[in-house]
Amino acid sequence: MKDDKRAVSPVIGVILMVAITVILAAVIGGFVLGLGDSLNQAPQAQISIDAASTGNAGDVEVSHNGGDAIAAEDLRIAGDYSGDFEAETSITDEFNVGESAIISTGASGETTIRLIHEPSDSIIAEATVDL
């Protein structure tokens, strides 16, 4: 008898077709259900944190130099000092490009300040400032 190996090819073909079908179903299901959209991403912004030139000890100036506008209610100040960005500044709606906020920390010496985006729990800006 002759060895006939033609049956191997159709078996591998069926396995590959099933694998491709499962992968396509998973990808299409992900798009339809919107699973990728449920992640909160931090806004992309260039923020600088410096000691303010107000003459008051402990004042910090936070400036928005470029990127996305950020809702003030989504921001929190943390580090050696912690506070609500919206309550600590005159910015109550959005923190837009070109705006600056003065925050009175009451701290002195080297102080680390972090600007945190609360929905994504991401640090947008961090600086150590000598107050």
Automatic annotation (TrEMBL):
NCBIfam families per UniProt: arch_flag_Nterm
Listed name of the protein: Flagellin N-terminal-like domain-containing protein
Q: Which organism is it from?
A: Halolamina pelagica
Record's keyword terms, sorted: Cell projection, Cilium, Flagellum, Membrane, Transmembrane, Transmembrane helix
Classification via InterPro entries = Flagellin/pilin_N_arc, Pilin_N_archaeal
UniProt KW Lipid biosynthesis keyword:
no
The positions making up the signal sequence are: none
Q: What Pfam families would the database entry show?
A: Pilin_N
Q: Which residues form a coiled coil?
A: none
Respond yes or no to whether keyword Membrane is given for this record: yes
Transmembrane region positions?
A: 12-36
Q: Which PANTHER family match?
A: ARCHAEAL TYPE IV PILIN N-TERMINAL DOMAIN-CONTAINING PROTEIN, VNG6441H
Highest taxon listed in the record's lineage: Archaea
Residue intervals of the Archaeal Type IV pilin N-terminal domain: 6-82
